[in-house]
Sequence to fold (531 residues):
Amino acid sequence: MGVISLNKKILGVSALSTMLVLSACAGGGDEGSDAENSSEGSGSDEIILATMSDAVSMDVHLTNDIPSANMQVQVYEKLLTLDENNEVIPQLAEEWETVDDVTWEFKLREDVTFHDGEPFNAEAVKANFDRILDEEIGSPRAVQYEMVDNVEVVDEYTVRFNLKYPFAPLLANLTNMGGSIISPAAIEADYEAIENGDEAGSYINENPIGTGFLEFENWTPGEEMTLVKNEDYWDGEVAYDSFVFQIVPEGGTRVANLETGYAHIIDPLAPNEAARVEQMEGASLATQDSVGLNYIGFNTEKEPFDDPKVRQAVSMAINKEEIIEGIYDGYGEVATGPLAPVIPNAADLPGLEYDVEEAKSLLAEAGFEDGFDTTIWTNDNPQRMDIAVATQDALTEIGVNVEVEVLEWGAYLEQTGEGLHDMFILGWSNQNANADTGLYPLFHSSQIGAAGNRFMIQDEELDGFLDEARQTTDEAEQEQLYADAQERLIELSPAIYLQHQTYLAGHLDEVEGFWMNASGLYQLKDVELTE
Fold:
């Protein structure tokens, strides 16, 4: 799919969305719009979830986006995970202890096998973290584990993580999707494919093999992916035979599919569609407050956004409250900084207030009293497209002319990772629900590009705060360092910290046990269909 340029003088917000629906190139639209198919033939043992975006890859070590993670998390597991209260609980590791400040020891479950029959053990854990930290693989998840010097096999079901320095959030980081455990046989086959000239992840993408309660069966990119029950799952079988992710880009079609019973679950649900689902007979709305951040970002390496005053001016010209009320129907919380208030060490800071006159003054100080021309990128998410148009409209008040460009999801991630954009709209889920994951991958200079820092921000003072906060074991010192980092990020303004989102999904009332965690990941283990 090529870039779509939009002019607000020609297209209003609703027309923009309609045009993009008609021109969307991600597959599944035709199947999703066939309302006459209903749920006939789907069978009670198959659950269908209609979602907007496909996975980029099923190699969990080489992706860091939510659409991919929502499919991967059903197939792969980690040593640890988070419960509904964001507390760390066991998954593939049963217990753990600190040997000293830089050594952690984990006892592994002994009753687990991979989908290909390979045993889960300490060697498998070591193979996975060796791969994550292999610079030739280039995992964007490596940032979560760069404090790990090596993983040591103690015995068949015991591993030690030997760290380069004390790192208090290690347990939280091990709950991240990047720490998911792939079959060592698949890892070996992937390395062999690399030696034969293929790209890293090419084998695993086509053969995703984990220990999860669902196994990969087939995938037609852009259309649908089918996962089936793991009958040998260590924690008991799921109550259904298969789970199908159907890619349905258009929100209205997803709602229609729920209404007709063609889909059992739909996500995401647009805020203006929430009332329709709530009023729908036989269906319900599912909500979850997030620990993530929706933002409008700047490429700080490109003029004029290389000047903090310009970034501050643009930030102050955007009315966040109006965007949340008008586009999100009031769902979500206005963000004043990068961390959601519920995150430990989130600072209570006022942020930059909406002030058009001050914005004009800052632009003049920066030498742009007559404004400038720029572009804002988004993917084909309806709310993000509406935010782009709202931003385009708001910035005319300070003389900034904005062209909106919409990219297909995969191309969007790739090109923003390469720094080809001016402004862009994106979100960060903060899968670990801690300050380190909410700040370091997004804003540290070592993470520029696809790893997370698409702002291309490089600031020695900020790097220092984040580096020291990672390594200190003094809680008071860590709290102060994170407060300093957040204050610095408001000064630098690499992004407009827009909103801490409320996730919205719809499901038929016959679906029980479905929920999303605070990172927006589907929890499908306990889902079942009732009559």
The two ends are 42 Å apart (CA to CA). The first strand starts at residue 4 and ends at 6. The domain at 74-187 is CATH 3.40.190.10 (D-Maltodextrin-Binding Protein; domain 2). Confidence is low (pLDDT under 50) at residues 1-43.
